[in-house]
Amino acid sequence: MKKKIIFLTILFLTVRLFADKSRFYENGKVIDTLYVDSKEGLRVRDFPSLKSNRLCGLPHRLSVKVVAIGNEETIDGITAPWVEILIPRYEWHGYNHEFGWVFGGYLSNKKPAFLPKQWTGSDFRCFLSKCNWIEDSDSSHREILCFEESGDFKRHIEEMGAGGFGTWKPDFKNKSVTARSSFVMAGDDDNTPAYNTETFKIENIEEFSISINGQRYISDCRCGVLGNEENFKDFDKTGSQFNTSIRGFMFVFYSSESIFDSIYREKASWLKDSFIRFGVYNSLNEDYIKSYHDYWNPIMAEHQKKADKM
């Protein structure tokens, strides 16, 4: 009887170990992308240890580019390997690849459901600040609203050189935003703008669209600025301005293959090399995914060798 119990215990532990490891591999190879599965977000560290330095944070449901699989550890009662990832492009401190480590227990191979009915006030704020919102219309002067995570508020009119700047505060209970801002025209240096307070009613919340005061707004994915990366290097040595300008749409491209594929096919295929270098995954495009694997497979193999020696 004792031998049977020992055998079952070993079998259970073996199955558990395999189950924990298997979801990080596909057809014998390290899986390309996984999703953050933690409502509190996930810390990226410079070494596979809780004692290492925090590099940045990843929001719930964001896809991440996997680079290598490290050693296992048990954290919060979960046994899983540490996973080396490509840090999202908008978190880099320069123009070259930056990598970090996350605990694999909070990664999933399936994207967690989008559940706004279960949100808290913090979730509401994070959702509004994840990207810029552009008016969904055929007008050449569409309004663009930016609720920044810092609390800053920006409002632009497309192709007019006009904008508002101020602060914003969300009201989760009433699903609204109060913004206090001034509105100025480009070049109007002699004018002292007055500050106005207005309320935006937020309705019809979907993953990449919302209704603001009855008008539909969608995630702003104008990505032409990526073509100016080399020019930015001349005056933006740390990449901070470049990162700020691409944060919104890069978040969307990391989060939605379908939106990225649509934008890519329609007007952004000339940026193919940049997107691949930034780790944007697109299995919906056969030509793209082949080039993606050609680029990343050698890098992943090299990083896995280093991870195996840790």
Description:
By secondary structure, the protein is of the alpha+beta class. It has 7 helices and 17 strands. It has helices spanning 2-22, 121-129, 229-235, 240-255, 257-268, 272-277, 286-308; strands at residues 25-26, 29-30, 33-36, 42-45, 54-58, 63-75, 78-86, 99-103, 107-108, 133-135, 143-147, 152-157, 162-171, 176-185, 195-206, 209-212, 215-219. An 8-stranded antiparallel beta barrel has the order 10-11-12-13-14-15-16-17. β4 and β5 form a beta hairpin. The protein is globular and about 60 Å long.
- Could you say which structural class the secondary elements and strand pairing correspond to? alpha+beta
Please, what is the average pLDDT?
A: 89
Secondary structure: number of strands: 17
Question: Major β-sheet, in short?
Answer: 8 strands, antiparallel, barrel
Helix content: 25-40%
- Alpha carbon gyration radius: 22 Å
